[in-house]
Design goal:
Elements (H helix, E strand, L loop, with lengths): L11 E12 L2 E6 L10 E2 L2 E3 L6 H13 L2 E14 L3 E14 L9 E5 L1 H6 L4 H4 L2 H7 L8
Parallel strand pairs: 1-6
Antiparallel strand pairs: 1-2, 1-4, 2-3, 2-7, 5-6
Bound molecules: 2'-deoxyguanosine-5'-triphosphate.
Length: about 150
């Protein structure tokens, strides 16, 4: 029989839903607050998918909790995986085309509408850096670095 102790440690997977909210050639990003991991990085709003939730439900909940707006989750545009050492994350990026209300920084230290150029000059999570061009292309938005 296999010895439990000799088995490699199984890395935990964390599913995350994030929203790509567009205004012209700009996307909405939030600055992660100081008391969170990855503090000081600019992220696409969203968060962890909780047990029993569908990804689009998680997205709608997170936007209500963190930005105070009602959104409609659009198409799943792309996904990415990233390893933060002891945990792996799987991020599902949804387009958000329709929303009601003005986004407010209820959770983030700041919210900003940013262009592709501005985003590439900000500090963003490693997970997003490697797919930033694909995010813009998936929305049919101009990407300056190609
Ligand atoms: P909580 O309740 O403090 O655990 O926080 P949640 O559920 O709001 O989730 P959050 O935002 O802390 O977890 C998302 C994880 O995914 C976190 O490890 C950061 C990582 N991540 C990487 N890129 C992004 C991104 O563009 N947006 C979001 N929301 N998370 C990202």
């Amino acid at each position: 029989m296999e010895d439990k102790k000799s088995r490699p440690k199984r890395t935990q997977w964390i599913p995350v839903a994030a929203g790509l909210m567009r205004k012209g050639n700009l996307l909405l990003l939030g600055l992660r607050p100081a008391d969170h991991n990855l503090a000081g990085l600019w992220e696409f709003p969203g968060g962890k998918i909780e047990s029993g939730e569908m990804p689009d439900q998680a997205l709608v909940r997170e936007f209500k909790e963190e930005l105070g707006i009602d959104v409609e989750a659009g198409d799943l545009k792309l996904s990415c995986t990233h390893s933060y050492g002891d945990v792996n994350i799987l991020i599902l990026f949804y387009e958000i085309r329709f929303w009601k209300g003005e986004p407010k920084p209820l959770h983030h230290s700041q919210l900003e509408w940013l262009s592709a150029e501005q985003i590439s000059q900000r500090q963003i999570p490693e997970a997003n850096k490697k797919i930033l061009d694909r995010i813009f292309k998936s929305l049919g938005m101009p990407w300056p670095k190609s």
